[in-house]
Structures are given as C-alpha cells and as structure tokens.
Amino acid sequence: MNSVAQPQLEALVAWAAKDRDDVVEARREYLAGTGEIHEDEAAFESRMQAFFNWYLLDRKSGTPPMTPAQRFLQAEGARLAAVEKAFFIGFTQSKHSLFEVRQLGVGLIRVREDLVKLRDAFNGDEFVVTERRRLAGLERGDLLEARLLPFGDSLHFSSAFTYHARAVRPQIWKEIKRRRKAGSLEPRPFVWELQRMALNLDRFKNIPPQTIYSFDAPFLGRRESANG
Fold first, then answer.
1. Looking at the domain assignment, is residue 1 inside a domain?
2. Read out DSSP for 90-123?
3. Which of 4, 53, 143, 213 could form a disulfide with 156 if both were Cys (CB 3.0 to 4.6 A apart)?
C-alpha cells in the first residue's frame, strides 16, 4: 500500500542515503531486532519499508540526537514550499504502535467509508485514520503494527504494515497484560518481537500460528529470543 506522502518519503530516503555508513549500521540494528530477511522472501519489500520508516522517523543519532527527518527539516526546511514542508513536519510527528481495529467506516448519520478507528494496544488511545484505499480483508478486532502520519487535520497510514493472524490475537493480548502487570512492557521491543514471529509465520506455513507466537516457549528456541 502506498503512503499518501510516498514521494516525500522517497525524497527523504534519497537525502538520508548519502550517509551510507549510518544506513548500513541502522539496517544491521533493525534486522538484529526484527529478524534477518532475504531478498527472495515475499515479505522482503514490506520489511524494508518498515525499516526505512523506523530509520527515518524514529532512530536518533548525533549531537544533539535527531532523526533523519528532523535533520532534513533543519537543513532543507527553509527552501521548501509551505505545502511540501507540511509533509516533512508530519514525518517528525508520526505515531508507531500495535493497533487494534475498532471500526471500519466511521459516522452516525453518514458513515465515512474512508475512515478507520484504531486503538493503541499499549495505552488505549484511539485514533481515526483516513484511508482512501479499501483495507482488504481487515475486520474489527484485527491487530496490526502500523505507523500513523499527521498531515493537515487528518491522520494517514504510512506504507509499512505488519498484520498478525486472528488465531494469535488472544495470545498477544495475554502477553501485553502479563508484561504490563510485571512492569516490563516496552512497546518497541515488543512489536519487534512480533515482527520476528510474523516473519516465521510466513516461512513455516505448516506450523500452527499459536506455536510460532508462543511467548512461554519461543519458536526455534533461543535463536529467536536472543535479541528480544
């Protein structure tokens, strides 16, 4: 799915890619956390989109610590037209989390089919997202890792999604509650752990999803949990 700001995101990628060593180091860090993936795998393109979303919009480095999106605005912002600049400001205000789909189509008298209501799985915050393209196959209760980008008065999805099978939703919710009670719930490491599980679900289609998404007995043992 293409983001509403895909041209601007691609421009940001090209600008940040000039620092090749930083991109390589960030990619190594990301794959260590989310699981190694190869170019011939079906999920490769979507995983690389997720990497660049994280690298450009979340990963801070330097002094003072800044994301590539923040550094771009500092360096190039004065030369941007107001409309164009608004997109890049939105990149610095993104919201990345695990979300539960609460409603597809929003409204009482007139239902807006292009609106999706989401709930943050970690803190319960709710968001209404504008999505002009139909989210095929999604239904209420589904869990997906996504990034929300603010542009103007509305929120939009970025190009990066990780969908988690309906069969494992009870396990994910149970683990969120367990970690929250234990005081060990850290959103980013948790969504990265879920990314590793989703990747293995793509690879091992003959294994039940509940086995792959086991938090008590990690699938493939310590190799999968070493970076969690």
1. no
2. HHTT-EEEEEEEEEEEE-SSS-EEEEEEEEETTT
3. 4
